[in-house]
Design the sequence.
C-alpha cells in the first residue's frame, strides 16, 4: 500500500508526528469548501480510499472510522479531503507494525458467584391472553 502511494504521488510518505488517522477534535470534512479535485486527483482519491478499505478488511480496524468518513466523499472529493486521506497513509506508515491482539481462550468465571435474580415483582402477576375459540392442538403447543 505504501508503494502504491509512492507510485501515485512520486514521493515516499514522510514520517511525521501523526498519532491519529484524522485530526483529533474539531475536524469536519463535511464542511470543507476547498476546490474540488480534478480528474487525476479524483482517480487518486478513489484508488487510495479503495486500498484503505482493503486494509480495514484485512484487520486494520484502528482506521475504520476514518476510512468510512472519507469514503463518503468518493463522488466529489475536495483537495482537503485528499490531504486527509494522505494523512491516514502517514498514520499507517508511522504505525505499520501495529496489531490488535485477541485472546481466544475461554475465560474462567469460576471465582464469581452466579446470582439468580427474582424479577417476579416486575412481571407478576401476569397471564398470557389466549384467544377464545382457538383450536385445541394450538393450545397444547403454547
Sequence:
Amino acid at each position: 500500500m505504501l508503494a502504491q502511494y509512492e507510485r501515485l504521488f512520486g514521493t515516499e510518505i514522510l514520517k511525521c508526528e501523526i498519532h491519529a488517522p484524522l485530526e483529533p477534535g474539531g475536524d469536519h470534512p463535511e464542511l470543507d469548501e476547498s476546490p474540488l479535485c480534478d480528474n487525476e486527483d479524483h482517480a487518486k482519491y478513489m484508488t487510495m480510499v479503495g486500498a484503505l478499505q482493503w486494509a480495514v478488511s484485512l484487520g486494520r480496524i484502528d482506521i475504520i472510522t476514518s476510512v468510512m468518513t472519507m469514503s463518503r466523499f468518493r463522488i466529489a472529493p475536495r483537495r482537503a479531503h485528499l490531504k486527509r486521506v494522505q494523512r491516514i497513509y502517514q498514520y499507517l506508515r508511522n504505525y505499520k507494525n501495529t496489531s490488535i491482539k485477541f485472546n481466544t481462550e475461554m475465560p474462567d468465571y469460576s471465582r464469581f458467584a452466579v446470582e439468580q435474580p427474582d424479577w417476579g415483582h416486575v412481571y407478576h402477576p401476569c397471564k398470557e391472553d389466549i384467544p377464545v375459540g382457538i383450536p385445541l392442538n394450538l393450545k397444547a403447543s403454547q
Residues 2-94 form one domain. The radius of gyration is 27 Å.
